[in-house]
Specification:
single chain, mainly alpha, 3-stranded parallel β-sheet, 9 helices
């Protein structure tokens, strides 16, 4: 057990002993709510980062389609194809899509690979959502000066409550809408 885990364990034990000694109803209620908050965050973090943590270890290569999408019905896009999809429970910014494409483009088949980006309403602002952080390498985050955000994805209910709630209730399975790619940087990269 490393030093950080020992400190957290010691603080937890001291807190629980003090709650038991004080023997106050509010202490028990606050403790139960705090534990529930941590468990929900742990489940959300695991759901957000499952594919990302296994990205280059268990996921193959030479996919016919790479789909970077908002949460929508992808059955028409995935039918009869060897595909890999990265679905977000909230709209991504154009910057996040650019970075994901640059990181994941090598997974496509060189001859017949297709990149499909499905965005209902892309955010015009620059930025990366908490749910996208596990997909980016630490060097990418360092280049963007966003290293601190890797700690935010550990508590998604606190830093991104709307996406976390959507994740658990599985909101919005709309049909994808076809549109034209209008981002010049991404067009240049794909050319």
């Amino acid at each position: 057990m490393n030093k950080k885990k020992k400190i957290v364990l010691a603080i937890s034990i001291i807190y629980l002993v003090s709650v038991l000694i004080i023997n106050n109803v509010w202490g028990y209620i606050i403790t139960i709510l705090f534990v529930l908050f941590l468990l929900i965050n742990l489940l959300a973090y695991r759901k957000f980062s499952f594919i990302a943590t296994h990205l280059f270890t268990t996921i193959g290569r030479n996919y016919e389609r790479l789909i970077i999408a908002d949460n929508c019905d992808l059955s028409s896009l995935t039918k009869d194809f060897y595909y890999l999809s990265f679905i977000s429970y909230e709209s991504r910014s154009i910057q996040a899509v650019n970075l994901l494409v640059k990181r994941l483009y090598s997974l496509l088949d060189e001859k017949k690979g297709e990149l499909i980006i499905v965005m209902r309403k892309p955010k015009k602002t620059k930025g990366i959502a908490v749910a996208d952080i596990p997909y980016f390498h630490e060097n990418t985050l360092a280049d963007l000066d966003k290293q601190y955000m890797k700690y935010f994805c550990r508590l998604p209910l606190l830093f991104n409550p709307l996406a976390t709630i959507k994740l658990f209730i599985n909101v919005s399975k709309r049909k994808p809408v076809e549109s034209i790619l209008c981002d010049n940087e991404l067009k240049h990269f794909l050319a």
